[in-house]
Write a structure and sequence with these properties.
- It is a single chain.
- The chain is α+β, with helices and mostly antiparallel strands.
- It folds into two domains: about 70 residues, no CATH class; about 90 residues, Rossmann fold (3-Layer(aba) Sandwich), CATH 3.40.50.
- Helix content is about 35%, strand content about 20%.
- The protein is globular.
- The termini are far apart.
- Bound molecules: S-adenosylmethionine.
- S-adenosylmethionine binds next to helix 6 and strand 7.
């Protein structure tokens, strides 16, 4: 059977599912997501890794249920049975940043890129001075732009051609940059979208 037909069959029976990007409605929900991820990670890093990186479904402990309700509402995980969840996204924790990316099972060409050694290297080695203005071309999940914002850049502009990447980047910005707001990026000109991530009290906006 051709690969595309097989994949469509697996999708139709729910074995392979394509999930929309995670989303939050505002600052309060973004803070709740951040709190839920922090609490879940702090309670048991192994379970956090098994769920979000290993892809194992988890039967929830009582203490985890309130955090998972928050993460279900934001589209990070989905309920598969009463009291059990599986992931909709991968979530990496790198230098205080929670970065959501697509599952590797998201086969479409707009798959939002996972974190690998090169992202870790770049985040940890970027030569940045407070007040710098940063432009990231090919933003993806936004991990590099967000690291720059967290390290004191005055303004960070990320550009990506993919609406899906921009949605993930806006979500990751909302969860990781306190006091800012993330708004839907918009198409600026043919084939190019951007999202702007100012630091401090300014709001995240798009143009
Ligand atoms: C490897 S991924 C993301 C890389 C990201 N900077 C990182 O370190 O995780 C490359 C990204 O480039 C975007 N891209 C490819 N061609 C582009 C173009 N011509 N203009 C803007 N973005 C582009 C893709 O949509 C994709 O999100």
């Amino acid at each position: 059977m051709p690969d595309g037909v097989w994949r469509r069959f697996l999708r139709s029976v729910g074995v392979v599912r394509q999930f929309p990007p995670p989303r939050v409605e505002g600052d309060a929900q973004a803070r709740a997501v951040r709190g839920a991820l922090e609490a879940f990670l702090a309670r048991d890093e192994d379970r956090f890794r098994r769920l979000f990186l290993g892809g194992e479904p988890l039967v929830l402990a009582d203490a985890e249920r309130p955090w998972m309700e928050v993460l279900v509402a934001a589209g990070y995980v989905t309920t598969i049975l009463a009291g059990a969840v599986r992931r909709c996204v991968r979530v990496f924790f790198l230098d205080e940043l929670f970065i959501a990316t697509d599952l590797l099972a998201h086969h479409d060409e707009d798959q939002v890129f996972s974190l690998m050694l090169e992202q870790v290297f770049l985040v940890r080695s970027m030569d940045l001075r407070k007040g710098d203005h940063v432009l990231e071309l090919c933003l993806g999940s936004g991990v590099n732009a967000l690291a720059a914002a967290r390290r004191g850049a005055a303004r960070v502009l990320g550009v990506d051609v993919s609406e899906r990447a921009l949605a993930f980047a806006a979500m990751n910005a909302a969860v990781n940059l306190s006091r800012e707001r993330a708004t839907r990026p918009s198409r600026r000109s043919a084939g190019t979208c951007s999202t702007l991530l100012p630091k401090g009290n300014a709001s995240i906006s798009s143009s």
